[in-house]
Amino acid sequence: MSDTSERITLSVNGISQEVTTAPSRSLLEVLREDLALTGAKEGCGVGVCGACSVLVDGKLMSSCIVPVGMVQGRAVTTVEGLAAEDGTLTPVQTAFMECGGFQCGICTPGQVVAATALLRECPDPAAEEVREWMTGNLCRCTGYYSIVAAVLQAAKAGQGESD
Amino acid sequence: MRPFRYHRPGTVAEAAQLIADLGEDGAILAGGTSLMTLARLGLAEPQHVVGLAGVPELCGIEGNSGDGITLGAMATLRQVETIPPVRRLAPGLAEAAHQVATVRIRNQATVGGTLVHADPSQDLPPMLMVYDAVARLTGPTRTREVPVAELFVDFFETVVDPDEILTSVHLPPASLGVIAGYLKFLPRTQDDYATISVAAGLTVVDGCIDTARIAVAGGGSTPQRCREAESALVGGGTDVAGLAAAADLVPEALDPVSDARGSGDYKREMARISTRRLLQRLVSESAT
Hints:
Chain A: This is Carbon-monoxide dehydrogenase small subunit. Chain A: Keywords: 2Fe-2S, Iron, Iron-sulfur, Metal-binding, Oxidoreductase. The structure holds two protein chains of two kinds. By secondary structure, chain A is α+β, with helices and mostly antiparallel strands. Chain A folds into two domains: 76 residues, Roll (Ubiquitin-like (UB roll)); 66 residues, [2Fe-2S]-binding domain (DNA polymerase, domain 1, Orthogonal Bundle), CATH 1.10.150. Chain A has five helices and five strands; from the N terminus they run ββαβββαααα. In chain A, strand 1 and strand 2 form a beta hairpin. In chain A, helix 2 crosses helix 5. The termini of chain A are far apart. By secondary structure, chain B is α+β, with helices and mostly antiparallel strands. In chain B, the strands form four sheets. Chain B has a five-stranded antiparallel beta sheet with strand order 4-5-10-6-7. The radius of gyration of chain B is 19 Å and the shape is globular. The interface between A and B is medium-sized, with 31 and 29 residues.
């Protein structure tokens, strides 16, 4: 623990959390290493690839370039917080499975969080809007067609989330 | 990455005092997309960071046709892209904001951050120049206003003093009547920095160009107005030859660096072509 440590409180997936840490650490690192939420992944580490996508106060962000000091008192949602408590998957998650919107899976948590954010803002997007929104979430397996198909299917299912 | 202390001022006055006291050990954190990336790459090592997220007076966007539009320094680029007063009164600015990186970055990056970071390839600065926008700077003893067109000094360097904070940007009402657009040349990926980009704004009266603004990003050490090309347009008609002749003056105003996105000569040439295409688009919009 360095001398810059402070106590930071934040809500993660609806649960109030308190961490004592250097505020300069990335939100991603704190989620993964302090809170054991390993869904968000570190890909590029500089905000480009989207593997670390989370929602901060409902807004899609790159948790790798958010210092945890910046989310003091704010609400973070990770991929672990999307499904219902009984494990029922959201329409986005179901659609990714049914459409085969993944292969190796490392980008999938980010893809799912990004798609969820899109459908909250725009419940019935055109394919072009889906492609544009998902631009920042890189995938090196699928070629993207099945990802776009999954987001469109989730939109058709009526809503982007279970709550 | 070197750990830093995090300061959370609640007012501009507190923030200004903090950065004055911290001096070179301190850095201002707006959205974090630039500072955190630089810190993670080891290119910035602030010991103290002054986070502005909790300063309400820096947030928000207000505007109407009578007063112009005021963008708070902490307004996000996503807000600039989506908020009705900007979309309605300064659609060129919303268009430019829409083309910044990805929605994830636009949710985090701010108006103040994109200006003060002063990367010459950023999308908003040339469009703010087209709208004659003026930045407001607050320091410990004074507040002053600087046109965005006079804000930039060199790569990553502005006229903002170390103890000043850029608090807002104002688009004057007279600028809002312009027909403005943005053409970002992106040969690689949609979320890339521009290889070169052009912002332009025209007013056309009875088939004659009455006012013109052209500004380029990625064309040198700062974003810049192309005043000779502007002058060539004013008083002329909207024929393609006239627009092309003005666009031909743009390359001379530029000194782009050769890098992975292309040679300086290539960028100059694409600036000329992009300007001509953009002007033709704006003229056709003015006719409808």
